[in-house]
Write a structure and sequence with these properties.
The chain is mainly alpha-helical. Helix content is 81%, strand content 0%. It is elongated.
Length: 113
């Protein structure tokens, strides 16, 4: 998985478990692509401190995923829902109304996760 995409997913799932200070720095680094220097100036701490906070957040978020597996479960559910949708589309023995009900249910699941 792409490192930036992975960081974003981990933050989406577990970011609320970080302190507000960590959330601000990590989200600016990951989502706004701010450099250590830019973050250092904005927050008023050294580049090394920013680097340490980002590394600590990476470790914390990865640790949560190792224990809870929410991102993994999310990706598995999403993949299975898409496979089911493809199956329903290709299956000729299912009438059109049933296909629409199933597809709408799958879309609802995908929107909720």
């Amino acid at each position: 998985m792409d490192k930036i995409f992975e960081r974003g997913l981990l933050f989406d799932f577990y970011g609320e478990l970080l302190t507000e200070h960590q959330q601000k720095i990590y989200s600016d680094a990951v989502f706004n692509d701010l450099s250590l220097s830019e973050l250092s100036e904005e927050v008023g701490i050294s580049r090394q401190a920013i680097h340490d906070i980002i590394k600590r957040c990476d470790k914390q978020l990865s640790g949560y995923e190792e224990k809870l597996h929410l991102v993994e479960k999310f990706q598995n559910i999403k993949k299975e829902a898409y496979k089911l949708n493809e199956f329903v589309e290709a299956e000729s023995s299912i009438d059109e109304r049933a296909k629409e009900v199933i597809k709408n249910g799958l879309l609802g699941i995908l929107e909720d996760i």
